[in-house]
Fold this sequence. Notes:
Layout: H1 2-45, H2 50-98, H3 115-162, H4 169-200, E1 209-212, H5 213-223, H6 225-230, E2 234-238, E3 243-246, H7 248-265, E4 271-279, E5 282-289, H8 296-300, H9 319-329, E6 333-338, E7 344-351, E8 355-357, E9 364-366
Parallel strand pairs: 2-4
Antiparallel strand pairs: 1-3, 4-5, 5-7, 6-7, 8-9
Helix pairs in contact: 1-2, 2-3, 3-4, 4-9, 5-7, 7-9
Amino acid sequence: MRGTHDMRRHGRLNLKLALLILTIVISSVIISTSLSCTIRTTLMTDPTDLKAIILGYMLRDIFMPGVTVLAALLIITPIAKRVVHPITSVSDAARRIAEGDFSTRVPVRKGHRDELSEMARNFNLMAEELERNQMLKKDFAATISHQFKTPLAIISGYSRLLEEDDLSDEDRRKYAALITRESGRLVKLSSDILRLSRLDGQEILASPTGFLLDEQILQAIVRLEPKWTKKNIEFDIDLPETYYYGDEELLSQVWFNLADNAVKYTSDGGIISVDITRSDGWLTVTFSDNGEGMDEETRSHAFQRYYQGSGASDGSGLGLAIVARIAQLHGGSAEIESAPAQGCTVKIRLPERTFAINAENQDTSAY
């Protein structure tokens, strides 16, 4: 309704302006015609009245065009200012942004829906995005510095302790194990950062292929067998045969991360449930455990980069962020349901994509 009202108002203004210009032009034509008639009458009645004839010609050929041009300038000048001012504002704002002032914004005339106002709004959207990216870069640098600082400090400290001659063999082994653990954290953190950086720059699936999703999930669980057998964890698995078309390598990372988290936070002797369900063209892969669960604050920040709950100590804080990004690249989503002492359930929703298998050459094609 508001846009329609603005269009009507601008339409009325344009109509008034057109009528005003038309009035000036018609008046000039009428006056010029009248002067021409007067000159002809004078020439017929008194050809010797040169003053009147010259004055008539001057009025018709010089004065009236001058009045018309002056009137047009008086009308066009304020209009030109209204057009040029927003463009100048955008130009000045662009220069300030180029100099590094990403907080710069262009004033937008309220209630206006013309092209210049739309340009100003789009410019402000661009400036907001640039400012947001700049803040993300600063936060990224600060976070990376903090993430690397702790393990590096531990490695440095225990390395110095290992140089002591009177150190017992037991302490030496303990310190070496700590250095190995923190080195592993650095390797994992570096790997996760690079992986997430590549995913951020990716908008489409680079190498989709057809594969059995249920087998892929089972393989991720089997890879973690030493961990869950050590904790005497049982798996309740319901994975019907599921053909899927997507990025096999990326999705393999999703199931490994989810299974690893479930094993990590499930108590000894616990149970982890994994299943695949179909509904309305969507596949839902669910990992559920009966571990310690999460409070609301931890749950709401679970997919945030570098966020680690109170119980996390050896992760990078990027595992679930990677999971969410990969699901997003497949046109899906990730969500968490959890509460303290009630375990945790992670659901990955993917658009159902099947494929046909050619048994002779193992080629696959999505449909």
